[in-house]
Design a protein that fits this description.
mainly alpha; 276 residues; two-stranded antiparallel sheet; rod-shaped; two-stranded antiparallel ribbon
Length: 276
């Protein structure tokens, strides 16, 4: 009792504050179990039961140590995310991979190092389960486990945000690459097709082609050049106008919110109907 009462307080009535005695494990005059700060006293039980109690206590200690370890690793993961310098998609992909690996380890450690040892069914015996439950209540393992789970959820939220950023950057990169590729193909088509049509025209044995004149004579072959180039120039102009209309329709708030546009139209109608 000297070890158990060390560091506790006496309220003056003989009851010692800081000591918990489970009712199911205390039989007056026969057995007694008392939990203090980091110390448990077992009296009156047979050695096999005491060994089972010691095994249950070791499980609780492993669970508490795992909680502290998981919290430390979770803070390290958050610190890694805060200190990371992400400038390219490769950097973002590397950071997401590191956070994913750390989160997987945290979740596995939380499941198999805390939940498994905190489960009362580890030793399926009513007496040992009562001792295990009393130790778990004394150590506040349930609250610690809930708080640690929330911390791990924060790491998961940070990882989800990083994944969204990576997906957005990858999508922007793909869209930019497709635009560049489409522009190169369009420019190549515009530069290649009209000269090919002109060469085909000049290569035809026709009375419209004067062998005494150069193919660069614009005054004589102006109609041929116009027929070869004007359709492609008109196609480019139509494409630019259509692209601008699409961009404007996407950037207009009324296009995003049709209800607001209908409300504005109805308000304009009512204002026009009102007499001046």
């Amino acid at each position: 009792m000297t070890i158990v009462l060390r560091g506790t307080l006496d309220d003056g009535t003989g009851a010692t504050l800081g000591i918990r005695r489970p009712e199911t494990l205390n039989n007056p005059g026969q057995t007694m179990v008392a939990h203090g700060r980091g110390v448990s006293l077992i009296v009156g039980y047979a050695p096999p039961v005491e060994n089972a109690f010691g095994l249950a206590a070791v499980g609780i200690l492993n669970a508490v140590a795992a909680v502290h370890r998981i919290r430390r690793h979770a803070f390290e993961a958050l610190e890694l995310d805060r200190a990371a310098v992400v400038e390219t998609t490769d950097d973002a992909r590397t950071l997401v991979a590191q956070l994913s690996r750390r989160l997987s380890n945290l979740q596995l450690d939380l499941s198999f190092s805390v939940d498994a040892y905190a489960d009362t069914i580890l030793i399926p015996e009513m007496l040992v389960e009562s001792f295990h439950s009393s130790l778990r209540d004394v150590s506040a393992l349930a609250d610690a486990l809930a708080n640690t789970s929330r911390i791990v959820e924060r790491v998961d939220a940070v990882l989800a945000t990083r994944r969204v950023d990576l997906e957005t950057a990858s999508q922007q990169y793909a869209e930019g690459r497709d635009r560049v590729l489409a522009a190169v193909i369009a420019a190549g088509s515009v530069l290649a097709l009209p000269p090919a049509l002109l060469l085909a025209f000049f290569g035809v044995n026709s009375s419209d082609v004067d062998p005494r004149r150069s193919i660069l004579d614009i005054h004589h072959y102006g109609v041929a050049y116009a027929i070869a180039w004007l359709p492609f120039l008109l196609l480019i102009a139509v494409g630019l106008v259509a692209r601008r209309r699409v961009s404007l329709s996407l950037s207009t708030p009324d296009a995003v919110n049709p209800d607001r546009r209908r409300t504005r139209r109805s308000w304009l109608r009512r204002s026009r109907r009102q007499p001046r």
